[in-house]
Amino acid sequence: MPKKAKRQQNVKNSKFTFSKYKYAIMIFVGIAIVVVIAGYFGIHSLIPVNGNTPAFAPPINTFMKATHSPQTGWLFTSQSTAASRSNGMGAGFNSPTIFLKYGALDSIHLINEDADTRSLHNLNIDTFNVHTKSLGYFESQSLTFIANKIGTFVYYCNIHPEMRGLIKVEQ
Ligand SMILES: [Cu+2]
Fold this sequence. Notes:
Order of helices and strands: HEEHEEEEEEE
Number of helices: 2
Strand order of the largest sheet: 2-1-4-7
Oligomer: single chain
Bound molecules: copper (II) ion
Helix content: 25-40%
Strand content: 25-35%
CATH architecture of the domain at 60-170: Sandwich
Structural class: alpha/beta
Distance between the termini: 88 Å
CATH topology of the domain at 60-170: Immunoglobulin-like
């Protein structure tokens, strides 16, 4: 066989070898990417906003609505168990008091149901590093935090200073 033909034959062989594994490699890399991405987001959604490690315990759920009526103005309302022990509101606060046990894992689920004014709303608890995005009408966001400090703290919307309530963490 002439040298040139032999070289071409070699090239063909090496191509053949590569293509034999090409799909296996592509599938493997594809699966690896999917697993890494899923793991990253899966684990990240389990890390509380004021913690570093994923929490695998099921959280308490606190559902909060940002609402408005002509009588009350802007305020948060809640029908959640965590907030239902409320004796109403703290003085100077127009939104329900949330009660939590020390160490509880709590998921705040905020939904903007302000059909009246269609304003943006957010929810913040500085002590626990809870800061939702400013949500438009009917948008929602969930954030999970650990109630790792005992005391009475304020949650609020930073667009409407009157939208605020207390969060009490008890032993
Ligand atoms: Cu607001």
